[in-house]
């Protein structure tokens, strides 16, 4: 195992949205299974549609890091507007799923400026038909959030996945 779970902001300190804290257990993350996540972050400006998300996903192959392609919306994909995706997943007007509802964390755009905090909460990772190249291993993910070409946030994650 190469070091386990880690995260960092990768903006140049000028991004309006930053992650302040993130913990994920267990390490490695086991699929299917349950993960306990706690997080805190803040944004100095409202995050509104269109919110573009660019994912770069790399997997360790020995000493090499290989960028994974975007296949069936998994991998190194660009999502041109997560606001629309959220609206499709959670119809507007319906309550946000737990534990977001309890902690007053919005699940639709716009996300107002302010601080958001999720105390340690459990999420179930269901049995997923993942391609073999997306299961066991060490991963690096870079998430860039932007709107109208302005970078809003950048986060790098490193984690290990282990399938049952």
TrEMBL record:
Any GO BP: ganglioside catabolic process
Pfam families reported in the protein's UniProt record: E1_DerP2_DerF2
InterPro entries the record matches: GM2-AP, GM2-AP_sf, ML_dom
Keywords of this entry: Signal
GO CC terms: cytoplasmic side of plasma membrane
Gene3D superfamilies: Ganglioside GM2 activator
SMART domains associated with the record: ML (SM00737)
SUPFAM superfamilies found in the cross-reference section: Ganglioside M2 (gm2) activator
The MD-2-related lipid-recognition domain, residue ranges: 7-159
Keyword Calcium part of the UniProt annotation: no
GO molecular function: enzyme activator activity; lipid transporter activity
Cross-referenced PANTHER family: GANGLIOSIDE GM2 ACTIVATOR (PTHR17357:SF0), GM2 GANGLIOSIDE ACTIVATOR PROTEIN (PTHR17357)
Name the record gives this protein: SAP3 protein
Natural source organism: Syrrhaptes paradoxus (Pallas's sandgrouse)
Taxonomic classification: Eukaryota, Metazoa, Chordata, Craniata, Vertebrata
